[in-house]
Amino acid sequence: MPRARLFAKQLKHIAFAWLACTVVFGILLALLFVQHRDAEQLHIQNVAQKVHFELNAQLKEIDSFLRQAESLDVTCPKETLFRLRQQVFKNPAMSEVGIVDHNGQLLCNTYGVLNPPIQTTAPIKSKELRYHGPVISDYMEMSAFVLARTRQDGYEVNVLLPSDWLRHTLDLQQYSKLDFIALVDSQTGVPILLQGNYSLPLHQPLFPIELSLQAHGEFDDGMNKYLFAKPLASLPKLSVVASSNSNPIFTIRSTPFVALVVAYLIVWVLLSYLLYFIEKRQLSLKYQLKHAISQRQLFNVYQPLIDAKTQKIVGVEVLIRWQHPSEGELGPAYFIPEAERSGAIVEISIAQVQNAVQELAPLLALNPQLKVSFNVNGQLLSCASYLAALEQAKQHIRSLTIELTERDVLSQAQVKHTLEQLVALGIEVAVDDFGTGYSGLQYLQSFPIDLLKIDQSFVASIGLDNLQSPVLNAVIEMATKLNKKLIAEGVETAYQADYLLKQGVEVHQGWLYAKALAIEALIVMVQREPSTLPSYS
Ligand SMILES: Nc1nc2c(ncn2[C@@H]2O[C@@H]3COP(=O)(O)O[C@H]4[C@@H](O)[C@H](n5cnc6c(=O)[nH]c(N)nc65)O[C@@H]4COP(=O)(O)O[C@H]3[C@H]2O)c(=O)[nH]1
């Protein structure tokens, strides 16, 4: 092959390998990206869930106290004050507990009875747990929020929760890598508790938050971010919101990315080399085959077809072998596919037919009825020079058969016409490996087919209880009905031969009788027959 063509082929392999690798690694990269993005988002959700869980636990405990506060004496005797103080000691999240009457007068708190009471807002009617804030506690001068419940009698018991204390208890500092984590009003989004820089997504209505939600896009600080929000189970008016910058979420870390790029390059190089290697091997097989033809290294072997009743040789199938200079004798499976691909099959097959005519001449002289069968494929049937070689051979071989597979018979429209021409010349058409083609059987009637060669797999099934065993009998029955001749291939045991004979299949081919023989061995066998044939009865 010229250098320029070889180079072009190599470039084609490199380009193909590049394309294949790009597709495969593109998919891998996309999967890696999705997996990384999901993991990062899950991390943010987990942080929010953790804070949600801890806050919820705190609020539940406080709420349980507020529910018990139904029994507190609202005239604020010593016992009531004691219970209020006891609660503050027990739960350090509360810095103050107070009792407010119907008019909004704060009557007493953990510091004592207020005289005169302080005017605050009148309790609302709802009996639900509620919050308000953020407020600045007068006593402690710090930000706080208030949890409250209105009792059955209309009095309110409330608890002051300083924001800083909660922030430390929840250890919000540990989430400083996030953009922010906050406890916000579910209706308005006003933060009650905040760690980080609070910003909200643009063009995405987030509030009111009623269920868990996620959002990503541009935020009001101009950055791209991801956000997760979840209302508190015990107080849905408050929600935990966590947000992080999109960059770490949507950017794959460099280590797996670099590993992927390195793997991509390695696979690209290996694949290019593999393609080059396969091409080279094929080229070399093609070249070797050409050389073999010119050096006449290809030769015929002949496998006898036996009449099982008389034990006489009634014909031969011509098979091909390659006497390879270094590999020894090679079977057709090694080189016929390549010969078909490269077109060398035509030259090989013409030489085969001519050799057979020459080699079989002495046997044909003894027995002019000797059947001689050649393997032919669709490609050969459309080749005038091969058909001419067959026609030529027919003048020497009276009983000439060509074997086609079902696939070959059906693959080309003009096959039928060619077969009819061959039949007109007196050539017999056989279907090889019959029963394995998975095609309908209508062609048996529309094509000029005389003979069916039962595939070895059906013969091998004789005496075995497998799926193919019933098919054999059906094939035999059908051939009889359609008036087709039958040959059984791959007969290896006396039991199989006996069975086939009983079913009316008289012509056998198989190792029980003989393997494919070189012409010299075939002549010896014919001279000795039938006495030397193994007896199987
Ligand atoms: N296990 C077993 N095998 C048996 C027995 N009896 C015969 N055989 C093998 O079965 C194959 C029969 O040939 P095929 O079905 O036409 O199948 C042939 C045919 O399709 C193809 N082939 C062989 N020679 C040629 C040729 O000259 N031209 C073309 N186009 N194809 C050929 O290669 C295939 C294989 O040929 P081979 O290797 O020679 O293998 C031959 C033969 O050696 C047996 O009792 N047991």
TrEMBL record:
Tell me any Pfam family this protein matches: EAL
Q: InterPro entries, from UniProt?
A: CSS-motif_dom (IPR024744), Cyclic-di-GMP_PDE-like (IPR050706), EAL_dom (IPR001633), EAL_sf (IPR035919)
The record lists the membrane-crossing segments as: 257-278
The way it spans or sits in the membrane comes to: Multi-pass membrane protein
Organism superkingdom: Bacteria
Q: Which UniProt keywords apply?
A: c-di-GMP, Cell membrane, Hydrolase, Membrane, Transmembrane, Transmembrane helix
For this protein, what is the EC number?
3.1.4.52
| Residue ranges of domain EAL in the record | 282-530
Which GO terms label this protein's molecular function in UniProt? Answer: cyclic-guanylate-specific phosphodiesterase activity
Q: Which PROSITE patterns match?
A: EAL
Tell me the compartments it is located in.
Cell membrane
Catalytic activity, reaction form:
3',3'-c-di-GMP + H2O = 5'-phosphoguanylyl(3'->5')guanosine + H(+)
On whether rRNA processing is a keyword of this UniProt record, the answer is: no
**Protein name per UniProt:** cyclic-guanylate-specific phosphodiesterase
Give the organism the record lists.
Pseudoalteromonas amylolytica
Species lineage, top-down? Answer: Bacteria, Pseudomonadati, Pseudomonadota, Gammaproteobacteria, Alteromonadales
